[in-house]
């Protein structure tokens, strides 16, 4: 990679001065060390300090800089600039209210996450040492606990777009299964009751956008399938 | 002036590991607690910790807290306070088991116990041979821990103020702390959070350097606020350069890679650490490994077209071990170095990683100035200096620090709040007005300095003048330069004046905090004319009386930088532990 010029079209909206959102074109000179989309956004902000976006760890683990990149949700900090078609179209995550530019109001997303009781429930007295768990049982949590709550999945899901207040969404359901799958958690029945509802779980129609966009390569659809299986088994 | 005031028993600034652990104590005690964070809690930088959290659980082989204590004192190059170090190492097994009970998804041994791996500087039997002490969740320990702590706080109904930035500390005429001034980022509304007890858990300030493993948000906000409020900063010359940042990108590659068998090689393919640390080799302490790497590069044995890095090699490990124990590292290598470590070694270079110094506290989390606690003020985690890390921190002791001192400061706050008068005293207005004036100056400034220009000047100066190896002349020049940068910061200007989620304003306010840390660092480093731990200078000669350039006769003491006049004062190191014998001064070798 060398020095190069890259073209962007970025969604802009400041409710204080803009009647409605608009797309604004930018051209930025990038150095050979600017490899990720976030590097380019940081450079653009030096030129126009009003461009607003969240960012923190810049290594794909904090989940701050999720956005819609050329029509697909992803994290700016792990997206290679040179793989993207120009002008690179950058928009906020779809389906959530926009606070400003690329910053969305994530209240509804976190509300759904909180609704599944995202913590281990175990009312038996804690032992003096760690609760034991076999390596095989611990392996059940792989592909679940790594979620970074970036919201790429839920905001790519049509079911979440239509019913963000009623459908838990892929991120919340992945978390729900993370606790169901944990041998240390004793509340599986209560958790299934909490999801037994026409909307909360069953609005998932296996469209699998969530799997397609997850920057951590997790599979919420599979986790949702496992919860549905448990529901069926419970009835039987 | 009419700033709305919100009243609490306790206010905690920062929702990383330390803030969340403290919040849990306070929430579960039923106290009215506000937790303020610039970011949603799980975005705090604790999330990026990888390798493990240390505790002498002895799950794979014999271990003892006393050995852990010995390693920590030795790692600190005897600058750590031995009472705090004993407290931390004794508490370690308790807080780690507690974390497991909170739901932390630790990896497991065949018997179901918590998996532990070797880490740099962790040895059995008082320095004999490496021991498995780092409790790990793959190479995502920080992520797993931060989420588990957040989840436990959801259960405890902790009240969070998400995306609120604290601006300044509020102290009354007696110096007692009354809370903080804070800004809601979405609206730019400014409030006072008044409380009986205030905890700073704001993390480090690694962003003073150009090349850092730290997140964008690590801007030393707690340090800047403390310094402006007249609290000195302790041992700020001691910064850890982590041996293995991805060359060019700065992203962290955990020491756990070497714990699992990874080897550092120079351009000749040589395992050079055998020459620098014949016993511990690649698992020597971080300061030792970083210096060895820079020496290899400086002597022309670096790798790549510019000979500017070395290689971290794990190609000899079983690919299944890499996939199960180091999946995050593999992901980072592929994304940031274009290298699959199963097939080829990772290019790495020492990168600024951790601030050993900070706000002076004792092991109870109380902020200590002039040997007395500052009433109502507490600090824990990277922002604090207890001091357990001294001149060099051992890997995995940072996550432990968050748990132990987050909990102990929470407990100290509970005790204090119980005995404090029921009604809050009248609010002192001076500090609030000073804070508002800072925001107003930014709103009015024109023809000033661009935030990015001042920040880049600061970062370049710190990188060049205060790095892995330090030089007398460069430090003196660095002090002059950083004071020039301070003048630039006084006139920083923003074009964006919107009140809605103004990130330009936030970056400007953050820079005002960073510059305090940069000054403290450069001035403290310039004054300390010895080599100790991570602070190594060319004019501190290696003699029989001063092995490795360490001068215990004159410099076995903590630095205290005061913002007012850039004064330096010093205080003795606590050599007496709580219950065991002092770990006596010794030449440090691995």
From TrEMBL, chain A:
<dbReference type="Pfam" id="PF13085">
    <property type="entry name" value="Fer2_3"/>
</dbReference>
<keyword id="KW-0560">Oxidoreductase</keyword>
<dbReference type="InterPro" id="IPR050573">
    <property type="entry name" value="SDH/FRD_Iron-Sulfur"/>
</dbReference>
<dbReference type="InterPro" id="IPR004489">
    <property type="entry name" value="Succ_DH/fum_Rdtase_Fe-S"/>
</dbReference>
<keyword id="KW-0408">Iron</keyword>
<keyword id="KW-0003">3Fe-4S</keyword>
<keyword id="KW-0816">Tricarboxylic acid cycle</keyword>
<dbReference type="InterPro" id="IPR025192">
    <property type="entry name" value="Succ_DH/fum_Rdtase_N"/>
</dbReference>
<keyword id="KW-0411">Iron-sulfur</keyword>
<dbReference type="InterPro" id="IPR009051">
    <property type="entry name" value="Helical_ferredxn"/>
</dbReference>
<dbReference type="InterPro" id="IPR036010">
    <property type="entry name" value="2Fe-2S_ferredoxin-like_sf"/>
</dbReference>
<feature type="domain" description="4Fe-4S ferredoxin-type">
    <location>
        <begin position="137"/>
        <end position="167"/>
    </location>
</feature>
<dbReference type="InterPro" id="IPR001041">
    <property type="entry name" value="2Fe-2S_ferredoxin-type"/>
</dbReference>
<keyword id="KW-0479">Metal-binding</keyword>
<feature type="domain" description="2Fe-2S ferredoxin-type">
    <location>
        <begin position="4"/>
        <end position="96"/>
    </location>
</feature>
<dbReference type="InterPro" id="IPR012675">
    <property type="entry name" value="Beta-grasp_dom_sf"/>
</dbReference>
<comment type="pathway">
    <text>Carbohydrate metabolism; tricarboxylic acid cycle; fumarate from succinate (bacterial route): step 1/1.</text>
</comment>
<comment type="similarity">
    <text>Belongs to the succinate dehydrogenase/fumarate reductase iron-sulfur protein family.</text>
</comment>
<dbReference type="InterPro" id="IPR017900">
    <property type="entry name" value="4Fe4S_Fe_S_CS"/>
</dbReference>
<keyword id="KW-0004">4Fe-4S</keyword>
<keyword id="KW-0001">2Fe-2S</keyword>
<dbReference type="InterPro" id="IPR017896">
    <property type="entry name" value="4Fe4S_Fe-S-bd"/>
</dbReference>
From TrEMBL, chain B:
<keyword id="KW-0997">Cell inner membrane</keyword>
<feature type="domain" description="FAD-dependent oxidoreductase 2 FAD-binding">
    <location>
        <begin position="9"/>
        <end position="399"/>
    </location>
</feature>
<dbReference type="InterPro" id="IPR030664">
    <property type="entry name" value="SdhA/FrdA/AprA"/>
</dbReference>
<keyword id="KW-0249">Electron transport</keyword>
<dbReference type="InterPro" id="IPR011281">
    <property type="entry name" value="Succ_DH_flav_su_fwd"/>
</dbReference>
<dbReference type="InterPro" id="IPR036188">
    <property type="entry name" value="FAD/NAD-bd_sf"/>
</dbReference>
<keyword id="KW-1003">Cell membrane</keyword>
<comment type="similarity">
    <text>Belongs to the FAD-dependent oxidoreductase 2 family. FRD/SDH subfamily.</text>
</comment>
<dbReference type="InterPro" id="IPR037099">
    <property type="entry name" value="Fum_R/Succ_DH_flav-like_C_sf"/>
</dbReference>
<dbReference type="Pfam" id="PF00890">
    <property type="entry name" value="FAD_binding_2"/>
</dbReference>
<protein>
    <recommendedName>
        <fullName>Succinate dehydrogenase flavoprotein subunit</fullName>
        <ecNumber>1.3.5.1</ecNumber>
    </recommendedName>
</protein>
<keyword id="KW-0274">FAD</keyword>
<feature type="region of interest" description="Disordered">
    <location>
        <begin position="529"/>
        <end position="554"/>
    </location>
</feature>
<dbReference type="InterPro" id="IPR027477">
    <property type="entry name" value="Succ_DH/fumarate_Rdtase_cat_sf"/>
</dbReference>
<dbReference type="InterPro" id="IPR014006">
    <property type="entry name" value="Succ_Dhase_FrdA_Gneg"/>
</dbReference>
<dbReference type="InterPro" id="IPR003952">
    <property type="entry name" value="FRD_SDH_FAD_BS"/>
</dbReference>
<comment type="pathway">
    <text>Carbohydrate metabolism; tricarboxylic acid cycle; fumarate from succinate (bacterial route): step 1/1.</text>
</comment>
<dbReference type="Pfam" id="PF02910">
    <property type="entry name" value="Succ_DH_flav_C"/>
</dbReference>
<keyword id="KW-0472">Membrane</keyword>
<feature type="domain" description="Fumarate reductase/succinate dehydrogenase flavoprotein-like C-terminal">
    <location>
        <begin position="455"/>
        <end position="590"/>
    </location>
</feature>
<keyword id="KW-0560">Oxidoreductase</keyword>
<dbReference type="InterPro" id="IPR003953">
    <property type="entry name" value="FAD-dep_OxRdtase_2_FAD-bd"/>
</dbReference>
């Amino acid at each position: 990679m060398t020095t190069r010029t890259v073209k962007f079209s970025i969604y802009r909206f400041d409710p204080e001065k803009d009647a409605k959102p608009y797309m604004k074109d930018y051209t930025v000179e990038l150095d050979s060390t600017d490899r990720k989309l976030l590097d380019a956004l940081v450079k653009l902000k030096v030129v126009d300090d009003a461009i607003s976006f969240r960012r923190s760890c810049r290594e794909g683990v904090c989940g701050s800089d999720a956005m819609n990149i050329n029509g697909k949700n992803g994290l700016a900090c792990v997206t290679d600039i040179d793989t993207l078609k120009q002008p690179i179209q950058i928009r906020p995550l779809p389906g959530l209210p926009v606070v400003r530019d690329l910053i969305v109001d994530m209240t509804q997303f976190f509300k759904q996450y909180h609704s599944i009781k995202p913590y281990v429930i175990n009312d038996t007295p804690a032992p003096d040492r760690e609760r034991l768990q076999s390596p095989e049982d611990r392996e059940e949590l792989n592909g679940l606990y790594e979620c970074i709550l970036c919201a790429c999945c839920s905001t790519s899901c049509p079911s979440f777009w239509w019913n963000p207040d009623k459908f838990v969404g892929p991120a919340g359901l992945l978390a729900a299964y993370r606790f169901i799958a944990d041998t240390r958690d004793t509340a599986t029945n209560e958790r299934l009751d909490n999801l037994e509802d026409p909307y909360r779980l069953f609005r998932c129609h296996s469209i699998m956008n969530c799997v397609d966009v997850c920057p951590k390569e997790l599979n919420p659809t599979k986790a949702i399938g496992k919860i549905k299986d448990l529901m069926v088994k419970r009835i039987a | 002036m009419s700033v709305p005031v919100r009243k609490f028993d306790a206010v905690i600034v920062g929702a990383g590991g330390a803030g969340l652990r403290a919040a849990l104590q306070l929430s579960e005690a039923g106290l009215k607690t506000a937790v303020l964070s610039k970011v949603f809690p799980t975005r705090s930088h604790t999330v990026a910790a990888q390798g493990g959290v240390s505790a002498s659980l002895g799950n794979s082989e014999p271990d003892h807290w006393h050995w852990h204590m010995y390693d920590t004192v030795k790692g600190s190059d005897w600058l750590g306070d031995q009472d705090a170090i004993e407290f931390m190492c004794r508490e370690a097994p308790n807080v780690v088991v507690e974390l497991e009970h909170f739901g932390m998804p630790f990896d497991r041994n065949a018997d179901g116990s918590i998996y532990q791996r070797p880490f740099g500087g962790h040895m059995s039997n008082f320095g004999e041979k490496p021991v498995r002490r780092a409790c790990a969740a793959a190479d995502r320990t920080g992520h797993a821990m931060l989420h588990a702590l957040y989840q436990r706080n959801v259960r405890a109904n902790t009240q969070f103020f998400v995306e609120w930035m604290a601006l300044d500390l509020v102290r009354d005429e007696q110096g007692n702390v009354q809370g903080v001034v804070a800004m809601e980022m979405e609206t730019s509304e400014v409030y006072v959070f008044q409380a009986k007890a205030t905890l700073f858990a704001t993390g480090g300030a690694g962003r003073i350097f150009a090349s850092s493993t730290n997140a964008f948000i690590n801007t030393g906000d707690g340090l800047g606020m403390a310094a402006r409020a007249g609290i000195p900063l302790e041992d700020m010359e001691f910064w850890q350069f982590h041996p293995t940042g991805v060359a060019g990108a700065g992203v962290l590659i955990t020491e756990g890679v070497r714990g699992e068998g990874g080897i550092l090689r120079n351009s000749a393919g040589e395992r050079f650490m055998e020459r620098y640390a014949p016993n511990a080799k690649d698992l020597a302490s971080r300061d030792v490994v970083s210096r060895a790497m820079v020496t290899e590069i400086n002597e022309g044995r670096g790798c790549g077209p510019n000979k500017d890095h070395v290689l971290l090699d794990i190609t000899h490990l079983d690919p299944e071990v890499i996939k199960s124990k180091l999946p995050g590292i593999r992901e980072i290598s592929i994304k940031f170095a274009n290298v699959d470590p199963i097939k080829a070694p990772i290019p790495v270079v020492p990168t600024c990683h951790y601030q050993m110094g900070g706000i002076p506290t004792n092991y109870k989390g109380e902020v200590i100035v002039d040997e007395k606690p500052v009433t109502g003020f507490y600090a824990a985690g990277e922002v604090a200096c207890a001091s357990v890390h001294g001149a060099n921190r051992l890997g995995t002791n940072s996550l432990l620090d968050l748990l132990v001192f987050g909990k102990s400061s929470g407990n100290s706050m509970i005790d204090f709040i119980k005995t404090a008068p029921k009604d809050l005293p009248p609010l002192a207005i001076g500090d609030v007005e000073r804070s508002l004036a800072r925001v107003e100056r930014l709103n009015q400034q024109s023809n000033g300095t661009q935030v990015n220009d001042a920040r880049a000047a600061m970062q370049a100066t710190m990188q060049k003048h205060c790095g892995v190896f330090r030089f007398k002349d460069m430090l003196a020049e660095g002090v002059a330069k950083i004071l020039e940068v301070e003048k630039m910061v006084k006139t920083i200007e923003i074009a964006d004046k919107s009140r809605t989620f103004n990130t330009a304003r936030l970056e400007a306010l953050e820079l005002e905090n960073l510059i305090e840390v940069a000054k403290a660092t450069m001035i403290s480093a310039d004054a300390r004319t010895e080599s100790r731990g991570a602070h190594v200078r060319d004019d501190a000669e290696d003699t029989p009386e001063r092995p490795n350039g360490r001068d215990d006769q004159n410099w076995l003491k903590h630095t205290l930088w005061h913002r007012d006049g850039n004064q330096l004062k010093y205080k003795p190191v606590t050599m007496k532990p709580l219950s065991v014998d002092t770990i006596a001064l010794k030449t440090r070798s691995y």
